[in-house]
Amino acid sequence: MRTEPTTYNLLNSISLPEDLRRLSVEQLPEICKELRQDIIKEVSCNPGHFAASLGTVELTVALHYVYNTPYDRIVWDVGHQAYGHKILTGRREAFSTNRKFKGIRPFPSPEESEYDTFTCGHASNSISAALGMAVAAARKGEKDRHVVAIIGDGSMSGGLAFEGLNNASSTANNLLIILNDNDMAIDRSVGGMKQYLFNLTTSNRYNQLRFKTSKLLFKMGVLNEDRRKALIRFANSLKSMAAQQQNIFEGMNIRYFGPVDGHDVKNIARILRDIKDMEGPKILHLHTVKGKGFEPAEKEPGIWHAPGKFNPETGKRIKADTSNLPPLFQDVFGETLIELAEQNPRIIGVTPAMPTGCSMNKMMEAMPGRAFDVGIAEGHAATFSGGMAKEGMQPFCNIYSSFMQRAYDNVIHDIAILRLPVVLCLDRAGLVGEDGPTHHGVFDLAYFRPIPNLTLSSPMNEHELRRLMYTAQLPDKGPFVIRYPRGRGVLLDWKCPLEEIPVGKGRKLKDGKDIAVLTLGPIGNIAAKAIEQAEKEKGISIAHYDLRFLKPLDEELLHEVGRKFQRIVTVEDGIRKGGMGSAVLEFMADNGYAPHIRRIGVPDTFIEHGTIQELYHLCGMDEEGICQSIINFEL
Ligand SMILES: Cc1ncc(C[n+]2csc(CCOP(=O)(O)OP(=O)(O)O)c2C)c(N)n1
Ligand SMILES: CC(=O)[C@@H](O)[C@H](O)COP(=O)(O)O
Ligand SMILES: [Mg+2]
């Protein structure tokens, strides 16, 4: 693979956008080249999101060149494409700490930089947030303040983006929306909007062809100046009628520009200058290539969305040997779903834009037509599943825990009330690591626990996951939530017979006399080691129960614990407030037991980013922390 030499003649002279603005337009391509090289070099050894930022290099440079940032507001959608923005806004030095514990944050964050204007991480919020800012600026009389939202084609498939567009079209504002269209989400973009954007490109080619033809006729003398003007007037009137009919944005009163080559930095800068002060809402449609400038990433943008470490010279990814490790929970889900679907023809798979992330791609490949990627549309994924369940299907809808927050009402209104048998698999439940507070799946236990009709479960290992999935699709189980974390399980031999688990039944893993430890989910494996350690260190005897279900609770098990123990420790990979520990507290109080209860879990604060190990340590949820809590639990 050919790579560019890494010299930073211009980039070294830029610490803030005002330095960039002192360059000539002619120098912009060079700065883009250096910026791109810098991103490649840094991300190769300090992994993170990669291909998306390569695709926005020219746009980023043009934006900071033309706009008076940070006074002008740039709102990134998701923020995984904003590494160039970080480097140009005073964080080049710190960029080597990107995503690391105590280092700079994974996504733009106003708490980190005044150039970061809003919370980033979850898709499709940029238009709404930017519109809010534009309206606020107008209310405050800040006529010279510009607001720009940058949203990808994948994020544009989200319902929230449509809500923002709808409001932007009917509210007085000068917002500029930049649509960064690379025909990719993490996997391929899906849906009608993708097709529509493609059609816009085709119609643009047609327009250009028409323009070129008229120029040619003119040259050939077929058209004189008067005829040409009349033809243009006629074509324009047709164009504006057609634009209104054909262009959804124009039809909504949002002026549409494009599509434009998103890698021609000088042209983007020129267009931005031209449209900057135009009144009313505008959309600029850019075509970009995800992974631009790094051949392997251009070829396989899905894999290079977040590729891990790689060699920047050869383009080879540096992968650890995982052959002797337990499987990823997501893969156990993916494989088991196919097994179940082979036996149960009613099973349908649904994922909102995370087929590779949650391994639904396995079923999509093995059973085309029986598993759907519905786009970045968590609310729709839930309601769509509800609709199918209502008609006798058995959907398995897999949504990352933190993204499920988007679908809260859909689960209540469109699944739980009718007790529809949708299996909601929450991948990435618990602390997820380097993606930080927006992505930690720590609220699900607390937010789903109050909802009637839901069964809430979490497997301690791969066998339990398989059995819970089997159980959930048996008749009359109603809506059934199964949460499991990012990463690997604990069993090398993860295949096991698919057997029913009685709903609401936990397990006593170990008897004990002095303290009872109650766990939910895979964190129970860490607790088991901590128990062993604490018994050794303190010479006490500790019982361990795996609750398996948070709802319904295993009342028999809890009565036993209430009767036998004065000291109870609960351990969960989720927010302490309202979660499993809270449920145990309530149960004990409601049933006349008065044990002392120590709850281990995520405290009442947003947990930063870092490795999962670092964050577990921070929250006292690692082996050492759990062991200390047990040892220091005096009456
Ligand atoms: C609500 C939500 N759902 C899913 C995701 C996971 N996610 C992150 S980036 C991404 C793809 C975004 O595609 P696009 O906006 O086109 O950006 P690109 O990566 O192509 O630049 C997805 C699905 C998310 N961040 N937020
Ligand atoms: C930006 C974003 O939301 C995703 O790319 C997310 O980082 C994926 O997380 P996983 O790596 O856990 O699939
Ligand atoms: Mg995209």
TrEMBL record:
GO terms for molecular function: 1-deoxy-D-xylulose-5-phosphate synthase activity; magnesium ion binding; thiamine pyrophosphate binding. Its cofactor is thiamine diphosphate; Mg(2+). Thiamine diphosphate binds at H80, G121, H122, A123, G154, S155, N182, F294, E378. One of its GO terms (biological process) is isopentenyl diphosphate biosynthetic process, methylerythritol 4-phosphate pathway. GO terms for cellular component: cytosol. It is an enzyme of class 2 (transferase). Binds 1 thiamine pyrophosphate per subunit. Binds 1 Mg(2+) ion per subunit. Mg(2+) binds at D153, N182. Its EC number is 2.2.1.7. It comes from the Bacteria. Signal peptide: none annotated. Pfam families: DXP_synthase_N (PF13292), Transket_pyr (PF02779), Transketolase_C (PF02780). The keyword Thylakoid does not apply. It catalyses: D-glyceraldehyde 3-phosphate + pyruvate + H(+) = 1-deoxy-D-xylulose 5-phosphate + CO2. Keywords: Isoprene biosynthesis, Magnesium, Metal-binding, Thiamine biosynthesis, Thiamine pyrophosphate, Transferase. Residues 327-492 form the Transketolase-like pyrimidine-binding domain. Pathway: Metabolic intermediate biosynthesis; 1-deoxy-D-xylulose 5-phosphate biosynthesis; 1-deoxy-D-xylulose 5-phosphate from D-glyceraldehyde 3-phosphate and pyruvate: step 1/1. Coiled coil: none annotated. Catalyzes the acyloin condensation reaction between C atoms 2 and 3 of pyruvate and glyceraldehyde 3-phosphate to yield 1-deoxy-D-xylulose-5-phosphate (DXP). NCBIfam families: dxs (TIGR00204), PRK05444.2-2 (NF003933). Belongs to the transketolase family. DXPS subfamily. Homodimer. This is 1-deoxy-D-xylulose-5-phosphate synthase. It comes from Bacteroides fluxus YIT 12057.
